[in-house]
Amino acid sequence: MDITAHMQQLGRQARAASRAMARASTATRNKALLLIADAIERDAAALKAANQQDLDAARAAGLAPALLDRLALSDKAIATMVDGLRQIVALPDPIGEISNMKVRPSGIQVGQMRVPLGVIGIIYEARPNVTVDAAGLCIKSGNATILRGGSEAIHCNRALAQLVAEGLAGAGLPAHGVQVVDTTDRAAVGALITMPEYVDVIVPRGGKGLIERLMKEATVPMIKHLDGICHVYIDSKADIDKALRIALNAKTHRYGTCNTMETLLVARDIAPAVLPRLAELYAAKEVELRADPESYEILRGYPNLVEAVEEDWRTEYLAPILSVKVVAGIDEAMEHINTYSSKHTEAIVTEDYSDAMRFLREVDSASVMVNASTRFADGFEYGLGAEIGISNDKLHARGPVGLEGLTSLKYVVFGHGEIRE
Amino acid sequence: MDITAHMQQLGRQARAASRAMARASTATRNKALLLIADAIERDAAALKAANQQDLDAARAAGLAPALLDRLALSDKAIATMVDGLRQIVALPDPIGEISNMKVRPSGIQVGQMRVPLGVIGIIYEARPNVTVDAAGLCIKSGNATILRGGSEAIHCNRALAQLVAEGLAGAGLPAHGVQVVDTTDRAAVGALITMPEYVDVIVPRGGKGLIERLMKEATVPMIKHLDGICHVYIDSKADIDKALRIALNAKTHRYGTCNTMETLLVARDIAPAVLPRLAELYAAKEVELRADPESYEILRGYPNLVEAVEEDWRTEYLAPILSVKVVAGIDEAMEHINTYSSKHTEAIVTEDYSDAMRFLREVDSASVMVNASTRFADGFEYGLGAEIGISNDKLHARGPVGLEGLTSLKYVVFGHGEIRE
Questions:
Q1: So what's the pLDDT on residue B130?
Q2: Which pLDDT value is given to residue A401?
Q3: Same CATH topology for A3-223+400-413 and A230-381?
Q4: Is B395's CB within 8 Å of A106's CB?
Q5: Is the pLDDT at B326 greater than 80, yes or no?
Q6: pTM of the predicted protein model
């Protein structure tokens, strides 16, 4: 098979289908989602059998346990997928909404209408639940989509593709509204990210390695984040209880997520009061501390204490490891953040109003928080209802990306025969 | 001079200055704008002398009359620049505004704060007024900017750069907040569009040739449009007077602008009634008509009538030339538009409510209009107050781009010690 030609074919089909997807009423799109949910429930046993094929092959190939874990489709995972689709149905339809309507001196009325982007390409690892989540969000937002999941999940993804197709057909939507790439050839990814004539945006979901590879080659714009080097800054005016609670939660609630704190900055004034208590809390969770010289002095004698090196400030550990640095105050903290942050999420802990306001205004990251754990940087926690991904870029969507990030605003003009004089 | 190293230096300086620009109060940014306006008024004679140097050199080099025209800085052009700056002062400050504030079940309050993009690179032709307009919009929106104007305007741009620097200094803003590239070496452009670490977005202002060149090389995202192949569709239910007025205005108000109509589509039912009358109006303006077979038959005998070829539907004439096609109705019209349009601006003329609504919803262009001339697709006409450029892309800004297009929304979270459970 000529993979490039095959992907171009999928692209042409997606582009053609995107018009019908965009035109479809809210009711039609919701109907498709409900039919897919029902079909998944009905065929749960068959899905698990397909998944078992994938798991057997993956085990035989020696896939890492963490990856096997993500590949596995338990009853609970199936129920979560089905629930997710029904929750998407309940979300307000972003499409067609007109905002900012104004009457202009010329007599024309101008507003902005929210419309689908067109064709979304999703590239993800061997996680079958993403197939359903992503298809659901794209259908709801009136987009056509091309899904390319990790090859280890091919049998399960094929089975899911069937059920998605059934739902689309049942609602009268085009079969090519959602296409699952049915080849494990990696050249399919290269083709998908270099056909801007057919694909409007790529949403990659996966590790830093995947994203870096895509960034080098993609000519289609991406909604992506490379990594999450998130900071918490404990200001000299911090409430110590809040500081301990937030710094502990931001690091230890989950280690492998992009909104987990990787570097803790502490104001010099408050460091002797806060760092030893925090070190005890971290010690209980076996978190290794990589400390700059000043915090190292304060913490000397605590377990799991290591001297930080320059590379630590640039590292997303995704592990029970935290880099710690004492700073003079908010200016040095913001300087450090603006130098080393991946612009994902940063938080200040402070009771000082002006410091809080300065931090919110001056820190150039997708999410900036006062007195809250960085772990809140999440589409569900922000009330987006669902999350297709996270963007650390500044253009288009920034931060957690929900349905709105899969849409665009076009200008609509209501005239009465006006011409320009 | 090592141009790449020099541009990297400008980039580093811009990035550093961008923080102070973003932090500056509304009053500070407005003060800079007013000081620049005053300085331009004061030094009008010197600016005209610098411009005369450019004009003499350009004439000696045999620059085309149209380009000389754009290069020339008349008293009126100077007054317009000064007025433009003062109008920018009067615009509301987009920066710092928080929207969509919600209290979430967790207790956190989440909103979105409008912030500058950071560093904007502007690449434009030899038009000194763009130097001032672009600097003004970037200062107002709290961005640092690197301006690279056409080399024929170098003396005038240098003089303007001095006055901009004077205004920035007078307001206490960093000297590198606005940098004018002071070399005519074209390698400067290549460097500017390939340093995403220092430049957040490029706004190219110029012809299709420039944009195509940049698109091939740029690794920095661009806010751009390649061309404007705009359509007017006269529906079978059109009010004929409105149709004649709009079709005439959309083509003949100005020939060289990107929102000028290039293709007229007419419903079969109404073509015999509308096309001959329209042809007379166009004849009076010496507009050449390139007609498909069906409209050719209707118009046979009219002056300046030519048979259209496939290439015509893909051509932005920027001239008194119009391609004309008879279509069965709105479906064929939208099919033609979605095939050939550059996604800039399309209009329908109709009294039929459902056709109007379908056209607005289903045509996938940056501006879609009912009963109005395509010439209205413009930042001032839409009430943006000013226009830095136009985007035919769907991500980030779409259509005429004003101050808001030079900004981004970041999430801000107001907490009270919340952690994720």
A1: 93
A2: 95
A3: no
A4: no
A5: yes
A6: 0.93
The band of B108, judged by pLDDT with boundaries at 50, 70 and 90, is: very high
Check: CB of residue A208 under 8 Å from CB of residue A315: no
pLDDT band at B366 (very low <50, low <70, confident <90, very high): very high
All residues of chain A having their beta carbon less than 8 Å from the beta carbon of residue B392 are none
* A60-73 pLDDT per residue, tens: 999 999 889 989 99
Verify whether the Cβ–Cβ distance A22 to B364 is below 8 Å.
yes
Per mean pLDDT, which range of A21-30, B281-290, B384-393, B400-409 is the poorest? B384-393
Chain A contact probe: residue of B106, B244, B394 with most A CBs at under 10 A: B394
CB spacing of A376 vs B408 below 8 angstroms: no
- pLDDT of residue B216 exceeding 90, the answer is no
Give a three-class secondary structure readout of chain A. CCHHHHHHHHHHHHHHHHHHHHHCCHHHHHHHHHHHHHHHHHCHHHHHHHHHHHHHHHHHCCCCHHHHHHHCCCHHHHHHHHHHHHHHHHCCCCCCCEEEEEECCCCCEEEEEEEECCEEEEEECCCHHHHHHHHHHHHHCCCEEEEECCHHHHHHHHHHHHHHHHHHHHCCCCHHHEEECCCCCCHHHHHHCCCCCCCCEEEEECCHHHHHHHHHHCCCCECCCCCCCEEEEECCCCCHHHHHHHHHHHHHCCCCCCCCEEEEEEECCCHHHHHHHHHHHHHHCCCEEEECHHHHHHHCCCCCEEECCHHHHHCCCCCCEEEEEEECCHHHHHHHHHHHCCCCEEEEECCCHHHHHHHHHHCCCCEEEEEECHHHCCCCCCCCCCCCEEECCCCCCCEEECHHHHEEEEEEEEEEEECCC
Segments of chain A scoring below 70 in pLDDT:
none
> Which residue of B113, B375, B394 is in closest CB contact with A420?
B375
| Residues on chain A touching B411 (C-beta within 8 angstroms) | 366-368, 377, 382, 398-400
CATH topology of domain A3-223+400-413: Aldehyde Dehydrogenase; Chain A, domain 1 (3.40.605)
Q: What ipTM describes this predicted complex?
A: 0.94
A359 vs B contacts (CB less than 8 Å): none
**Residue B249: its chain A contacts at CB < 8 A?**
419-420
CB pair distance less than 8 Å for A361 and B113: yes
The class that CATH gives domain B3-223+400-414 is: alpha beta
* Residues belonging to chain A: 421
Between A110, A408, A416, which is nearest B382 by CB? Answer: A110
Nearest chain A residue to B260, by CA: A420
Does residue B349 contact residue B233 with C-beta atoms inside 8 Å? yes
| Domain B230-381 coded CATH 3.40.50.620 | no
- pLDDT tens for B331-361 read 999 999 999 999 999 999 999 999 999 999 9
Q: Which among B110, B360, B409 is the nearest to A398, CB-wise?
A: B409
Mark yes or no for CB contact B416/A200 under 8 Å.
no
Q: Do A108 and B372 touch (CB under 8 A)?
A: yes
* Size of the A and B interface in Cβ pairs below 8 Å: 219
Interface test with B, best of A212, A368, A382, A391 (most B CBs within 10 A): A382
Q: How close, in Å, is residue A394 to chain B by CA atoms? A: 6
- Residue B261 reports pLDDT greater than 80: yes
- Measure CB to CB from residue B108 to each of A22, A221, A372 and give the nearest one: A372
Whether the pLDDT of residue B374 is over 90: the answer is yes
Determine the pLDDT at residue B370. Answer: 98
**Which pLDDT does position A141 carry in this prediction?**
97
Rounded to a whole number, what is the distance in Å from the CA of A111 to chain B's nearest CA? 9
Domain ranges, ordered by start, for chain B: 3-223+400-414, 230-381
